[in-house]
Design brief:
The chain is built from 15 helices and no strands. By secondary structure, the chain is an all-alpha fold.
């Protein structure tokens, strides 16, 4: 992955912190799919470390994804190049209303191929998969779902986006988004995921469990199912509409067990 070289790579020259997060993201999904628990949790503090039991839930996710080497390569390329969307100078070539990070990376792929040499090692089909993953990421922000910041309409956009490719695109998308989340604290440590500890894993796995049902469930069932699951883990009441609203507020405030009293 030439983009990530520590001296000559484009990310190293333009966004060094992003390069570190990217490396952490890529290594983390490899450790996840290869079932390397000890390496994955190595940078986590003892009190917050991901438990073996929760790791088994991650392995259930990995078995569901059942990713081939070719699809894993595509996911790694996605992670390797997505950070280039934060390079503002690339966006100047695009219309003002089409300068999202995903728009920028898609533009670079199509018009500045020398900036993303990793893409050239993909088959035509895998290149299209990376592009489709970028397009879906543009309309559906996984991190915003985790915090209750989006709405069922964004889940509906996700459902519509994956309808033509089915579960393959959904599986690759979710694996990539897990990788992104694993790399949140990658500036400090690239070997393993400091971020994906017991608490953060619980919220992310809950979101994934509902998104896995996106093809067969309504967007409202997926979205509110996740919000209510967060509320139940905080022992909040969930029966009445105002209680459901409180569950969403808890997500928006990133509330933990110690905060529930203040919310009520």
């Amino acid at each position: 992955f030439v983009e990530l070289r520590d001296t000559s790579g484009l990310l190293a020259k333009l966004l060094e912190d992003e390069r570190k997060r990217t490396i952490c993201s890529m290594l983390s999904i490899i450790l996840l799919v290869k079932n390397r628990y000890s390496d994955f949790v190595a940078p986590q503090s003892t009190g917050r470390q991901l438990s073996v039991q929760k790791w088994q839930e991650w392995q259930d996710f990995a078995r569901w994804v059942d990713i081939s080497d070719e699809h894993l390569h595509a996911a790694l390329v996605f992670l390797a190049i997505r950070g280039l969307g934060k390079v503002k100078s690339f966006g100047k070539a695009l219309p003002a209303n089409a300068r999202t990070p995903e728009d920028i990376v898609l533009h670079v792929m199509d018009n500045v191929g020398r900036a993303v040499p990793s893409v050239n090692h993909l088959s035509t089909e895998m290149r299209m998969l990376v592009q489709e993953t970028l397009l879906v990421s543009k309309c559906f922000n996984f991190a915003q779902l985790l915090q209750g910041e989006n709405t069922p309409s964004q889940v509906e956009l996700l459902k519509n986006s994956i309808s033509s490719r089915g579960e393959t695109l959904l599986k690759v998308l979710l694996l990539c988004q897990v990788g992104v989340m694993c790399g949140v604290m990658g500036v400090q440590e690239q070997q393993g995921s400091a971020f994906m500890d017991e608490t953060n894993s619980a919220n992310i796995l809950a979101a994934i469990s509902f998104l896995r049902m996106a093809a067969s469930s309504s967007s409202h069932a997926v979205y509110w199912g996740y919000i209510l699951s967060r509320g139940r883990r905080l022992h909040l009441p969930c029966a009445e509409l105002d209680e459901v609203a409180l569950c969403r507020l808890a997500c928006l405030c990133r509330a933990g067990p110690a905060d529930t009293g203040a919310l009520q």
